[in-house]
Amino acid sequence: MKKNLPFAMINAVRKLVSLNMLKIGQTLSVRELSGPKDIKYKLYDLGITKGVKLTLISKSPLGDPFNILVRGYNLAIEKELAIKIKGTLL
Amino acid sequence: MRVVLVGNQNSGKSTLFNLLTKKHQKIANYPGATVDFMEGYTKDKSIHFTDLPGVFSLTPYSPEQEITLNYLLNQDYDLILNVIDVTQLERSLYLTTQLSDLDKPVVVALNMSDILKQNGENIHLETLEKRFGMSFIKISATKNDGIFDLLCLISSKDYLKHKHPLYPQEIETEITKIIPSLNTDNKRYYALKLLENHESFNDVIAESHANIASFTTDLYEYLAHHRYNFIEGLLKRAFVKLTKYDKRTAKIDKILLNKYLAIPIFLLIMFFIYTFSVGFIGSRSVDFMETSIDNLSNFLRTWLSGLNASSWSISLLVDGVINGVGTMAAFIPQLIVLFIFINLLEATGYMTRIAFFLNKLFRRFGLSGRALIPFILGSGCSVPAIMSSRTIANKKERDMTIILTPMVPCSAKLPIITLFGSFFFKQYAGLITFLLYLTSILVILLMAIIMKYLFKVKTTTGYLSEMPTYKLPKPKYLFRDVINQVWDFIKNATTIILLASLVIWVLLSFNFKFQYGVPIEKSILAYLGNILAYLFYPLFGELSWASSVSILQGLVAKEQVVSSMKVIASVSNSSSILTASVFTFFTTASALSFMIFNLFSAPCIASIAAMKGELGSTKKTFYAVLFQTGFAYLFASLIFWILHWGGF
User: Fold this and answer.
1) CB-based contacts of B615: which residues, under 8 Å, 6+ apart?
2) Which of B282, B421, B460, B578 has a CA-to-CA distance to B540 between 20 and 30 Å?
3) Which residues of A touch B61 (CB under 8 A)?
């Protein structure tokens, strides 16, 4: 059922969370990116596009950056950037 | 025929390039190891290869990625060889979709295909070829598999040449409309750029903008999304199991990136590397080489006297050449060990993890997490270290790293530490070495904070870095890299040192009337040194021409400091440096001050040249060197007087 709902309605049902809120092992389905263009474009190029699933694998011992699994590869991403990636928990 | 190699970092591009051209190039695992691009030929010189810096898209995010884009757009070549890590297909093919916008034909080499076979997976190449309109070929650069087929495909020019449009119809229509108004090569690429950047210079393009605005506000995002969807769909049809997360890497990361263990493990590894290479290997090899050189000197002296050789020619050979060059030879064993470890850290993928967990710490000091790579390489030699800072995208962060890297104690500064350490601190020499390294880290961080305010560094684009899977490097490549690095060092060092040693010998053995055999105190060098000694008085509390001259020699090369002292000691008939009459004034306090000044003052000429190259400005380089030397001078004097008054 949910699959046929437009994004806006899903968002109304399920609250958007940003990547930095994830616990280790949780997966996020990306809905929106914010921030300056060049950073957004870099994230798109790296495969963080709308609808993609990100799994938080681990955090740096100092709490930042995060080690995430996206499109079959590992990406280290700073908290500052992780905040800009929002989506729904799976 | 000219072929360019393009691919992601860690795609095995450099390994393939080495196989194709047999020309040496460094392989490493941290992003952007290929700093300058490399060129080479096949054996019969029929195919010319260019290895461009690794990129993950055609949008440049660092100066070296810009090199790749500019080369692809503006240089003359016949074929793009896109190298792909087959275990990272989804992300790697993204670049392929962008390469398809360029004019030149593309051959895609699916590297590491042996791993695919191991996992019982397969790819239907024809599906990929049909959809892209490019030739795909499976290879394995590390197993030397499929390389001959690849070369045949390239030289026969039997690859697919008509690339298929990959974008939705509404985009392709606009591209087709814009192309006639463009007057360049790579029209598809530029048409898309105009649309993405909302630029237009005629009505046709303006109209296209309007058409595109009806379905997307951000074409870049739209296309990125489309490209990835296209790849996902294609991989499903080509019967590829989408790549899974490497389980072994996950297990290793659990330990090495563990919240509590990561930093202790890192410190332990670094401590082991330095105690082993500097302490264990270093002290033994220095002792061994010094005895051997003494024996050789004595043997030559007796032998040549027996042949009735003139005393000045014996002195030239023994005191000038053998002692000067020999001292450098003494620390080659530890250099080899150090290079092996640094290369291992790089090639296994651990170096990226170090940057990963130190990033937050480094950012506080206005430095990129990636600055650690030059800093660690800098413990070997500042020259390649300074050059490796090119992977840092932000200019200010990069400049800071370039200026700070020479303050990392490089291996050429080790003989200074070893010499004074073992003489004044005996069994605590290892501890002193460790403390000096620790001091240099603290100094670098302090300098970073000062520069952060001087340069007004603001928090910049966030840290994003691929975490490569752990790999066991091939010993063959590892040792070849080490041998090459050590050989480069020997080649550079011997010529400079031989020349410098001869100059010192002349200045030391003659007086201003050019009479040979004058006492050292009457030599030209002593005269020059006596003037310099006033400048260095605050460092030693003593007017010492011999140490002043040796410090100056450090400008030529840091290993020159000790060999200069050795030459001076040798001419004054002392077999050990610090027991020579000109050096007996050294106390614990002035020894430490001497070490500290040499650690932080202006680096050698070669490093200054590298700094100038990377900073891109003579003025900046001058200020940087002045900054380093000024700091070293103040710090060393301070340490000396505090310890001196403390009675050391």
Assistant:
1) B399, B402, B403, B621, B624
2) B282
3) 38, 42
> Is there a contact between B356 and A76 if contact means CB atoms under 8 Å apart?
yes
Identify whether the C-beta of residue A66 lies closer than 8 Å to the C-beta of residue A20.
Answer: yes
For residues B94 and A49, what is the distance between their CA atoms, to the nearest angstrom? Answer: 12
Q: How many angstroms separate the CA atoms of B30 and B353, rounded?
A: 9
- Please report which residue ranges of B33-132 form alpha helices under DSSP H: 63-74, 89-99, 113-118, 125-132
**Partners of residue B59 in chain A, C-beta under 8 Å:** 41-42, 45
The closest alpha carbon to B80, from B53, B55, B109, belongs to B109
d(CA B386, CA B371): 10
- For B265, the closest chain A residue by CA position comes to A61
**Distance between CA atoms of residues B261 and A32, nearest Å:** 35
Task: Say whether the ipTM exceeds 0.90.
Answer: no
- Per CB-CB distance under 8 Å, the chain B contacts of A65 are 356, 359-360, 369, 463
Are the CB atoms for B58 and B95 separated by under 8 Å? yes
Helical residues (DSSP H) of B179-282, grouped into ranges: 187-196, 203-213, 219-237, 247-256, 262-274
Q: Dihedral angle at the C-alpha atoms of B68, B113, A56, A85, nearest 10 degrees? A: 40
Query: At which residue do the structure tokens 């290479």 appear?
Result: B277
Residue A58 contacts B where some CB pair is shorter than 8 Å: yes
Q: Which of B549, B560, B500 is nearest to B520 (CA)?
A: B549
Strand order from edge to edge, sheet including B48-51:
B38-41, B48-51, B2-7, B79-85, B106-111, B135-138
Distance from CA of A15 to the nearest CA of B (A): 23
Q: How far apart are CA B191 and CA B187, in angstroms?
A: 6
pLDDT-derived band of residue B506, with 50, 70 and 90 as boundaries? confident
Average pLDDT over residues B348-375: 80
Residues B212-230 pLDDT 10s? 888 888 899 999 999 999 9
